[in-house]
Amino acid sequence: MKIIVFGGDGFCGWPTSLHLSSKGHQVLIIDNFSRRKIDIDLGTNSLTPIQNMSRRLETWRKLTGNKIEFENIDIARDFDKLVNIFLKFKPDGVVHFAEQRAAPYSMKNSTTKRYTVDNNVNATNNILCAIVECKLDIHLVHLGTMGVYGYGWMDDNPIPEGYVEVTIDTKNGKLKKEILHPVNPGSIYHMTKTLDQLMFGYYAKNNLIRVTDLHQGVVWGTQTAETKLDQNLINRFDYDGDYGTVLNRFLMQVAINHPLTIYGTGGQTRAFIHISDTVKCIEIAINNPPKKGDRPLIFNQVTETRRVSELALLVSKKTGAKIEYLKNPRKEASENELVVENKKFLKLGLNPTTLSEGLLDEVTEIARKYVDRVDEKTILPRSKW
Ligand code: NAD
Ligand code: USQ
After folding, report:
1. Which of 46, 75, 176, 209 has its CA 20 to 30 A from that of 96?
2. Whose CA is nearest to atom 4 of ligand 2?
3. 2-223+272-302+337-353: what CATH class?
């Protein structure tokens, strides 16, 4: 298939592009390097030394003979260029990772709030609108988030995959309907993902666009089978207080003898997935599109749920790391249960990679290898809401 990966320079997009290319798909990456620019603004950097796009692609071509194309376009602004690329490349599918994805960054100040909304909402709308404009039957696979649901609201009932059945009392008796699961975003970033969902519903209904929305949990790990092949293919590893996600931060903290930073009580339960499963899920989603005219197909892209304190204990028991409880910089429930349904991916063949000592070792080894690149000033949370 011909596939465009929007945001293909990022943490999930780069290994996905390599994975799809390794499976014989013709891949075109589109990215505007905004993420690399934000690192410069924040005075931080990927823990791993990621190479520039030319070197990445040249290394992949030399290793595998596969050519991945690249275009530097801001998809939130350059609508005409986007349409022209669709008309020229004629993709069968597009994978949309190209959004500002850090909740803390989105909550820093009104500039970052507005940037996150402008960028994410326009990027999604432009892709949908360009699909309509070019009159091609392109399947859109989008990376959404578990945070659209708000991490559980029905005790230990599993969060379903996108839609809930409701019964409404009407004057003619009870009416049963399936509706989009109610949204409950905890940050401006998460809010943009709830707006994305509305746009998907609209374009699927009015323009018969085929959309798959993947509600992904927190991604951990760094390398995949393909990024391990050469040092020049190494994936991004964010560790700073804005972009670093919890488990990878803990593993980096082990490497530099920093106490593990639990925010609040650590009673927050979140869903997790390893990066090597992310790339497999995308492949499965591409191979199993909804039909034209279907409502958006929603998968919960998670393999397990864990409490933050449980993760810290696991890492501490294994490594002897100390734990530090910080005042929670975020407005979020101090404790929650979270049970998530993920039957759809399992049924389609996903064999989950769950947290294991071996995998933790692998990430800690990467963190140890690049320990000199850590800037300790960026570790503590700098965004509070
Ligand atoms: P990332 O920031 O590493 O990658 C996003 C990429 O998109 C970057 O390379 C950035 O330069 C590019 N981009 C952003 N706006 C763009 C624009 N307007 N035009 C062109 N390129 C643009 O993020 P990631 O961790 O790879 O996440 C990818 C997607 O997956 C995001 O949409 C995120 O919401 C979702 N997601 C990520 C996680 C996670 O834990 N990392 C979990 C759930 C969902
Ligand atoms: N946390 C700590 N200590 C830390 C960092 C985080 O206790 O050092 C806590 C946070 O308070 C939060 C939880 O860990 O309760 C998860 O935080 P996170 O930064 O790992 O993840 P989050 O902000 O939820 O965002 C990440 C990605 C985002 C994606 C989301 C999936 O950055 O793109 O959408 O995970 S989910 O959380 O399932 O909505």
Report:
1. 46
2. 246
3. alpha beta
